[in-house]
Task: inverse folding
C-alpha cells in the first residue's frame, strides 16, 4: 500500500489521491480474500514488484532489479513482470547487466536453508519441481485453457508454452520499435526526475499492467490467484489513465469469479465468464497502448493471416451450434413426432422420450458409466447391456471432444474480434467472417445430398439403442446440422454486408 501511494504520488504530488489509491488497495475484495481470508502470500511478491516498478519509474534500475530478484525469490510468478522489464532493457532504461542481480538475490535467499542442510541443487530447482505438481492446463485461471479437456494436457502444454513465448516476444518487439511522438506529460517531472523522451509514466504503467495480465492469460498451468498482480496494477492504471477507471472493477470481477470456485464452491461457469471479461480488459489495454504509441493498424500480412483463421473458425462455430441444438430434449421430441419415425417395440412414446433424453444428457455431462448401469425398466431389466454402455461411453468422449472444439472456436473467434478492434483491422475481420459464412453454406450444400443417399449406421449393436435411435434419427440429425449451419452461414454473410454498409455510412 505504501508503494502504491508512492507511485501515484509521482503523478499527483499534491492532494489526497495517493492516499485514496492506497486505501482502495486495502479495501479491494480480491486483496482481502487472497490475503486475510485465504492466507495466501501473493501480496508479498507483488509488493516487491511494486517496489521494482517504482524504481523503474524514478530511474533507479539497480534498486529496481534488486527488488525484482526479491520478488522472484518469494514466488516464481514474479516472472509475469519480466516481459515489461525486457522492454525497459530494450529501451535502455535498464542495463542488461543488472539482470544478473536476479540470480544473485535468489542465491542469497536460499543460502540459509542450504547452510541448514538442504541440498543446493534441490533449492535451486525448487520452482522446476513445483511446476509438475498439477497435471492440468488450468487451475480455474481465467484464460482459454479452461476450455481444453483434461485429456489434452500432454498435447496442448508444449504448444501453449511455445505460443506464449512467441506472442510475448512479439509484443516486446512491437513495443520496443514503437515511436511515441507525443508522450503524455511526465508524472515524474513534478518530483524533479524527468523521464527520458519517448516514454513516460503513463506508458510505463500501462506496459507493466499488460505484462502482468498478458503473461498468465497466455500461459498454461496457471492458477486462479495468478492475476493478483494485475488486480493491483489495475488500481494504479485507473489513476494514471482516468479514462480506464473501470479496469479495477473488471479485475475484481475477473479474479473474484475465478477464486470463488475454490473458496465458495461457486459454479464452474464463473471462470468462463471471467475469461471473457479478461479478454475484453486486455483488448482495451492493448488498444490504449496502440494509441499512445501512435501505431497504425496491425501489419497487413498479420491481419490477412488472422482473417483467414477467422474464416476457418466459422464452420466450426456454426456446425457446433447445430450440434448443441440436436443434443436437446426439444429436438428429440420433435423428431419422435415425425410421421416417418418408426415405432419402438415394447416402449410407449413417453418412455422412449424419457430414456432417449437421459441418454443424450449423459453424452453432454460428467456422469460416469455407472449412471447408465443403474438405469432399469419397470420390470427391473437393465435399459442398456454392457456393449451398449461401452458404445455410449465412446460416443460420450467423441461428443465432448467435439463440443470442446466448438467452445474453443467460439473463444478464439471472440479473441480475434477483440484483437481486430484493438488493432484497428475490423474490415479484414469482417471479410474473414463473410468468407467463413460462404464456406459453411457450401459445406452444408455438399454434405446434405451425401447424407440423403448414404446409409448412416453409427450403432451396430444393442436392442435398446436401435429402438431409441434408429437410422432415420441419425439421418435427420445430420440434415438438421446442415440446415442450421448452412442457414447461419448465409445469415452471417448478409449481416456482414449490412455491417460493412453501416460502417461506411
Result:
Amino acid at each position: 500500500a505504501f508503494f502504491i501511494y508512492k507511485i501515484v504520488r509521482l503523478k499527483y504530488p499534491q492532494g489526497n489521491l495517493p492516499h485514496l489509491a492506497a486505501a482502495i488497495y486495502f479495501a479491494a475484495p480480491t486483496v482481502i480474500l487472497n490475503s486475510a481470508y485465504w492466507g495466501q502470500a501473493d501480496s508479498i511478491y507483488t509488493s516487491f514488484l511494486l517496489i521494482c516498478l517504482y524504481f523503474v519509474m524514478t530511474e533507479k534500475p539497480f534498486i529496481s532489479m534488486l527488488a525484482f530478484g526479491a520478488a522472484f525469490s518469494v514466488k516464481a510468478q514474479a516472472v509475469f513482470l519480466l516481459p515489461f522489464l525486457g522492454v525497459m532493457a530494450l529501451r535502455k532504461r535498464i542495463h542488461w547487466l543488472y539482470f544478473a542481480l536476479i540470480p544473485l538475490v535468489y542465491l542469497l535467499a536460499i543460502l540459509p536453508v542450504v547452510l541448514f542442510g538442504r541440498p543446493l541443487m534441490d533449492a535451486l530447482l525448487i520452482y522446476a519441481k513445483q511446476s509438475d505438481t498439477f497435471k492440468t492446463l488450468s487451475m480455474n485461471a481465467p484464460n482459454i485453457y479452461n476450455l481444453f479437456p483434461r485429456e489434452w494436457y500432454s498435447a496442448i502444454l508444449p504448444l501453449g508454452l511455445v505460443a506464449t513465448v512467441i506472442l510475448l516476444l512479439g509484443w516486446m518487439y512491437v513495443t520496443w520499435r514503437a515511436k511515441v511522438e507525443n508522450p503524455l506529460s511526465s508524472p515524474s517531472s513534478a518530483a524533479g526526475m524527468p523521464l527520458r523522451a519517448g516514454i513516460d509514466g503513463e506508458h510505463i504503467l500501462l506496459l507493466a499492467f499488460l505484462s502482468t495480465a498478458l503473461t498468465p492469460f497466455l500461459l498454461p498451468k496457471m492458477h486462479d490467484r495468478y492475476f493478483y498482480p494485475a488486480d493491483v496494477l489495475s488500481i494504479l492504471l485507473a489513476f494514471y489513465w482516468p479514462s480506464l477507471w473501470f479496469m479495477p472493477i473488471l479485475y475484481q470481477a475477473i479474479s473474484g469469479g475465478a477464486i470463488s470456485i475454490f473458496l465458495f464452491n461457486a459454479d464452474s461457469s464463473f471462470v468462463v465468464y471471467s475469461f471473457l471479461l479478461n479478454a475484453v480488459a486486455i483488448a482495451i489495454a492493448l488498444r490504449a497502448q496502440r494509441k499512445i504509441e501512435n501505431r497504425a493498424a496491425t501489419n497487413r500480412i498479420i491481419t490477412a493471416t488472422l482473417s483467414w483463421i477467422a474464416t476457418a473458425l466459422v464452420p466450426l462455430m456454426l456446425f457446433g451450434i447445430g450440434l448443441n441444438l440436436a443434443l436437446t430434449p426439444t429436438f428429440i421430441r420433435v423428431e419422435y413426432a415425425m410421421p416417418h419415425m418408426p415405432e419402438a417395440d415394447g416402449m410407449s412414446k413417453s418412455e422412449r422420450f424419457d430414456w432417449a433424453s437421459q441418454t443424450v444428457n449423459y453424452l453432454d455431462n460428467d456422469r460416469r458409466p455407472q449412471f447408465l448401469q443403474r438405469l432399469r425398466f419397470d420390470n427391473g431389466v437393465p435399459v442398456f447391456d454392457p456393449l451398449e454402455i461401452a458404445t455410449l461411453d465412446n460416443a460420450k468422449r467423441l461428443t465432448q471432444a467435439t463440443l470442446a472444439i466448438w467452445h474453443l472456436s467460439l473463444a478464439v473467434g471472440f479473441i480475434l474480434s477483440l484483437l481486430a478492434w484493438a488493432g484497428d483491422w475490423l474490415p479484414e475481420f469482417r471479410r474473414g467472417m463473410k468468407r467463413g459464412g460462404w464456406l459453411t453454406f457450401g459445406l452444408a450444400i455438399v454434405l446434405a445430398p451425401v447424407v440423403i443417399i448414404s446409409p448412416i449406421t453409427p450403432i451396430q449393436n444393442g436392442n435398446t439403442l436401435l429402438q431409441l435411435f434408429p437410422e432415420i434419427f441419425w439421418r435427420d440429425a445430420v440434415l438438421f446440422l446442415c440446415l442450421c449451419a448452412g442457414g447461419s452461414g448465409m445469415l452471417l454473410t448478409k449481416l456482414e454486408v449490412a455491417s460493412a454498409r453501416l460502417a461506411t455510412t
